[in-house]
Every structure is written in structure tokens, then in C-alpha cells.
Write a structure and sequence with these properties.
Number of strands: 18
Organism: Loxostege sticticalis
CATH superfamily of the largest domain: Vaccinia Virus protein VP39
Number of helices: 11
Keywords: Methyltransferase, RNA-binding, S-adenosyl-L-methionine, Transferase
Bound molecules: S-adenosylmethionine
Pfam family, one: Methyltr_RsmB-F
CATH architecture of the largest domain: 3-Layer(aba) Sandwich
Family: Belongs to the class I-like SAM-binding methyltransferase superfamily. RsmB/NOP family.
Protein name: SAM-dependent MTase RsmB/NOP-type domain-containing protein
Order of helices and strands: HEHEEEHEEEEHEEHEHEHEEHEHEHEHE
Amino acid sequence: MQNLQEWLSQPPRYTTFRVNKLKKFDCDSLNGFLKTKSKELNTSALPNFYFIKSDCLVLEQWPEEVEVKKGNKEVIVDALCAAAVLRGAHVFAPGVMGMPMNCQLGEKVDIYGDMEGQCKRGLKITFEGKKLFVGTGVLRMLRQDLFDNGVQPSGIAIETLLPVSRLPVVNETICPPGVLLLQNLPSIVCGWVLNALPNENILDMCAAPGNKTTHLGEMSNNQANIIALDKTPQKSEKIKENCIKQGVSCVNAYAFDSTKCCSLDSNNVDNGPPFPPNSFDKVLLDAPCSGLGQRPQLNNKMTPKMLESYKFVQRKLMKAAVEVLKIGGKLVYSTCTVTVEENEGMVQWALEKFPCLQLIPAEPLLGGPGLRESGLSDAQRVMVQRFSPEVDPLRLVEPIYRDSIGFFIATFTKTH
Ligand SMILES: C[S@@+](CC[C@H](N)C(=O)[O-])C[C@H]1O[C@@H](n2cnc3c(N)ncnc32)[C@H](O)[C@@H]1O
């Protein structure tokens, strides 16, 4: 078994995209883009890509013969930015910490991550702290654009050429807007588990920026009635923007605290939140969580106190979810973290606290079972999905689903 910490410190070896079924995706655009990149990298090899379902595209690494060669001037970026580079992203201006004085636009540079957050912004000399080489790129901004004009810089500072992970640098802009969405595989699976169908009333309780909401709208062919809530007003605006961009017209988004989304004084779902009890056929609770499943994690600053805090809001949200769910309805609970307390522990707590809830298989079951000795019985463990490096004979997992981010999905129904 691969050690969890080691697994979390490395990026997945695949990039996944959700493909919008409401729009037309042209494989030639990706092929053409990769061919152009292969010329820049002086290789005739191309990365493989394939669909695992009509809405899920997998892009593999550049073949091993494509080498990442260092030896250029060093640019230091913060750890978050370095993690993004390892996943195939460009370097955005706010992430740059240090750069030599004599760099030229268009020059090839080596990108290093500041592993302990020690680099002073604007550093001119060689950084001597703990650093990790994450890839090479081409400089698109100079020191004066980044550090010297007193305003927060924006835009791409370095176009990543090749990360050491050898993941292709491909983003959504290779297609017309709204066709492709970079999305982690378990998040896509989460949409498949909820399985939005035409005419269903669906509540997405923690929806921003709307990546799962839009997936649900698309899979229902814009025929479901979806309400998307997020407590932060700017974030709920983002849901609306993303729905427009992706051609999703069956979503109403509101800024609202979902812990308060059920009220006995309300009598209609169509007027927006709060809602009467027993209103929704399906509820997605993609809960705020400690996010410890994100990969790679290069410098996590989470304190034990912060870690402890998530379960309180998760419990409040779960209570509201149970209230607004119809009898016989389906509730999907998910997190992008690996802690037992926020995952199997929440399932155990919910089953004890709400006798009306019954755990049902979170199908399609593509991730592994719940953790051993986590408070769940084997019969319960096989009904949930945990995306992690553990190998458990209770359910073997295809390699692609074992090499994504850490994630958890459980599904309940309400019996009375
Ligand atoms: C894991 S993210 C959701 C990601 C989203 N489901 C997606 O796939 O794009 C959790 C979200 O919950 C929101 N949130 C936190 N507490 C909330 C509350 N009490 N009510 C509604 N939203 C909340 C946060 O603002 C954050 O956007």
C-alpha cells in the first residue's frame, strides 16, 4: 500500500476534463493543440487521451522520452502555485515570489516552489531556502510588472512549458467557452452518483463555483429543476456566470446560508430559500471541508484547531439536508478530504442522529470502500466510496480511480 502522505505529496498522473454534453466537443482541437506543443517540446510523441464516459475525458502524461531539462534562471513561486504547475497550469502573477534582475521576456526559466513559505516577495538573488523544481516555462512578465508598480499584478507571468509531472499544459481555452471544464475525476463521479433526471427537483446546497451544479444541469439536458445555494454572494454570482457560459438554463442560484434552508413558514420551492420540509427529490451536500485530498499538497498550513472545526458546519448542513429531502429521495454527501471524522465519521453520526436516514450504495461505485476501523461495518463500508491509495479486498479499484484526488461520497435515502 502506498503511504497516504506520499500519495498526497504527488500530483495525479492524469488530467480529467468534463465535456459539456449540451455543446459540441471536437477531438481535433485537442489533437491539433497537442501537436503544436509537441513541436515546442522537440518531440514527435503525443500524450494519449480518451473518454471513460461521454462526459469525461482523460488526458495522460507526455511519454517518458519527453524530458524536463533544467539549467535556466530560477523563478521562485509560492507552494500553491507550484502545486498548480505540477498539475499542468501556467504561473499566474500573484504566485511569483522571486526572480533574477536580468530576465528577458520570452526567456526560458526554471520554476521552483518555495516549500516552507520563506521567500520574500520580490527577491532578486538566488533563493537558498527549501525549494522544489516543478517545471520549465517561458517568461511573459518582468520584475517591474510583478513587484515594482504598487498594485496587485494579474495575468500569466510564466507560460508553463513542461512540468516535472509531464502532465500536458492544456486548459479549457483550447475549445470555445463552456465546452471543456477541468474537473477532478471523483467530482465528476459525484455528479454520476446524484444522476440528475428530467423533472426532478434538485437542491445543490454548497454549489459555488457551480462545477457540480452545471454537470447536473447538463446531464438532465436542462430538464431538471435545480436550485443552487452558496452562502457567499460573489460566489453565487459565479454559479450564474458558469451556468450561462455552459448553456445551463435549468438552475436558479441564490446567495443563502444552507444551514437555514428549511423553514416551516415556507410553502413553495419556486420562491427561493428557505424551503418547506420534504421539498426535493435529490439533494447534493458537497460540504465545505478541510480539503486535505487535494494533490499535490506541498505546504499545508492547516492547524489541528481548523481541522476540528469543519464537522460542526457539516453537521448543521446535514440536518438541513435531511429536512428538505423528500421521503424516498436521495441525498449525496461528498467531501474532497481524507479525514475519517469528515467522511465515515459523518456517515456514522448522521445515521445515529437521524433514524429516518438509510445508507444506500453510492452507485456507480468506482472508488474504494470506506476505511477499516472507521466506525462503519463492512456492509456500510462497501456502500460508500473513498478515493485514496489504500487497497482493500472489499472492493478493488481501477488504477485511474486510485490516482485522482482524495475524495469521499456517501448516499442516503429518507425512509419516513
Ligand atoms: C466544496 S465547495 C463547493 C464546490 C462546488 N460544489 C463545486 O463543485 O463547484 C464548498 C462551498 O460551500 C460554501 N459554503 C460554506 N458554508 C456554507 C453554508 N453554510 N451555506 C451555503 N454554502 C456554504 C462555500 O462558500 C464553498 O463555495
